[in-house]
């Protein structure tokens, strides 16, 4: 692996969770990681509430666009070191073949875009998703990448998917 590691976050719609994860890792991992996001069935655009959360926290959202995961499996696409699914639907789909045999992991979490209720309740769902992703990505970014062999690194990255997951973590672990 090179000094800068490429990470692809996948979700079905590429409108909320994966967009948030891309933004967080690009800020958190400055120079050490380059994050991307994509979806198996991308929405026309990122969810407005995901963009609002990011802007309110001082993130530049000019990068944000919903895109197909096919973009990252095509010739000439950046080779990924890690591919992480952040929704249960995308984890269960047949993914493209990623060049370079990246480490894969599943960090499933509820979809904040599916939450119904008042604007405050929906905003809270996005804020909670951001908080969980931020915690997981902080753990990921602090892993001693250079000192872990591939097997240990894969195990550690997959374990992060259970961080703060509660009942959803048990489902993601297959319990």
Main features:
175 residues; alpha/beta; Rossmann fold; 6 helices; 4 strands; globular
Describe the SSE topology.
Layout: E1 5-11, H1 17-28, E2 33-39, H2 48-56, E3 82-85, H3 88-91, E4 103-106, H4 119-141, H5 150-160, H6 167-172
Parallel strand pairs: 1-2, 1-3, 3-4
Helix pairs in contact: 1-4
Q: Let me know the largest β-sheet.
A: 4 strands, parallel
Strand order of the largest sheet: 2-1-3-4
| Rg from alpha-carbon coordinates | 15 Å
Low-confidence stretches: 167-175
Structural class: alpha/beta
What is the CATH topology assignment? Answer: Rossmann fold
Q: What's the order of the H and E elements?
A: EHEHEHEHHH
Mean pLDDT across residues: 88
CATH superfamily annotation? Response regulator
User: What is the CATH first-level class name?
Assistant: Alpha Beta
Tell me the β content: 5-15%
Query: How helical, in percent, are the residues?
Result: 25-40%
How large is the count of helical segments? 6
Describe the overall structure.
This protein is α/β, with parallel strands linked by helices and 175 residues long. The chain has one domain (5-162): 3-Layer(aba) Sandwich (Rossmann fold), CATH 3.40.50.2300. It is globular. A four-stranded parallel beta sheet has the order 2-1-3-4. Strand 3 (82-85), helix 3 and strand 4 (103-106) form a beta-alpha-beta unit. The chain has six helices and four strands; from the N terminus they run E-H-E-H-E-H-E-H-H-H.
Brief characterization of the structure:
The protein is of the alpha/beta class.
């Amino acid at each position: 692996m090179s000094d800068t590691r490429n990470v692809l976050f996948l979700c079905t719609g590429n409108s909320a969770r994966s967009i948030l994860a891309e933004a967080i890792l690009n800020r958190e991992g400055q120079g050490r990681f380059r994050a991307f996001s994509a979806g198996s069935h991308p929405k026309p655009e990122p969810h407005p509430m995901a963009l609002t959360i990011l802007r309110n926290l001082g993130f530049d959202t000019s990068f944000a666009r919903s895109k197909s995961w096919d973009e990252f499996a095509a010739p000439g696409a950046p080779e990924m070191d890690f591919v992480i699914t952040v929704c249960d639907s995308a984890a269960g789909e047949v993914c493209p073949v990623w060049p370079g045999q990246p480490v894969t992991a599943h960090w499933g979490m509820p979809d904040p875009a599916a939450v119904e209720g008042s604007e405050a309740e929906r905003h809270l769902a996005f804020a909670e998703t951001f908080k969980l992703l931020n915690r997981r990505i902080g753990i990921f970014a602090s892993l001693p990448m250079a000192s872990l062999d591939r097997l240990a690194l894969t195990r550690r990255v997959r374990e992060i998917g259970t961080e703060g997951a509660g009942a959803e973590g048990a489902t993601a672990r297959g319990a």
